[in-house]
Amino acid sequence: MLSKRIIPCLDIKDGRTVKGINFVNLRDAGDPVELGALYSEQGADELVFLDITATHEKRKTMAALARNIAQHLNIPFTIGGGINAVADADLLLACGADKISINSAAVRRPELIDEMARAFGSQFVVLAVDAKAIDGEWWVHLNGGRIPTDIRLLDWVREAEQRGAGEILFTSMNHDGVKQGFACEITAQVSELISIPVIASGGAGAMEHFYEVFTAGKADAGLAASIFHFREIGIGELKGYLKEQGIVVRT
Asked: Confidence class of residue 58 from pLDDT cuts 50, 70 and 90?
């Protein structure tokens, strides 16, 4: 069995880490590079940095941030936000990012996934998917959850895998920041549908929630933000708990 990964996520706005509930009501959580370095020391397996307003405000993800992160961290990190072309990704990878994350731009032009996979290899391409359950069906949303689409979640992740995405970062907008647990049922459906790794995001509030998403949710990795940012759960403590429950994690 492959080790399950614990991944802190740092949402970036104006150079600062922020966190909200259901994608709104953001509050400051600290300097992203300092937080990232702390998580690296605590045993995080990877980090994800997302410039959550880059697409909405028509800005590019800052290459300077990627360079700064790479200089201070020794674990893999993914960076995303406002990546619209191969050249955008190429710059970030050159600045030290291990993977790039694309979201809204790929929905608007799915061929972007193919182009990224051809240029860098699937292992460098993470497709972030923000979806919301409405009347029993999960629908993809764009621009940090601001814009609904008529694209079904399961249809989109299947197409993304076929186009060459290497991982799916699935965030349940219904669960984001609520801390009542991940969306395990739909996460399991996504995991069973595709063969590439699935990172579950949205809803972590207790150590038990990670156990649930790794078992019932069949996720390959668990991503969380506020519980780490505000020191509610320690990464070492979480990994110790998961090992006691029989989950294989990296030490």
From this structure: very low
Place of tokens 């970062």: 169
Q: Which two tokens stand for residue 44?
A: 């995080």
pLDDT at 13 over 90: no
Which residue in the list 45, 51, 98, 130 is annotated as catalytic?
A: 130
| Whole-angstrom distance, CA of residue 104 vs CA of residue 62 | 17
Q: Assess whether 51 carries a catalytic annotation.
A: no
The H or E element spanning position 11 is strand 5-13
Q: Is 11 a catalytic residue?
A: yes
Q: Which of 27, 49, 23 is nearest to 37 (CA)?
A: 49
Q: Give the sign of the dihedral formed by CA 199, CA 202, CA 207, CA 211.
A: negative
Give pLDDT, residue 231: 87
CA angle 213, 217, 218 (to 5 degrees): 100
Q: How many CB atoms lie within 10 A of CB 180?
A: 12
Distance, CA of 32 to CA of 27 (rounded, Å) = 13
**Is 0.85 surpassed by the pTM of this model?**
yes
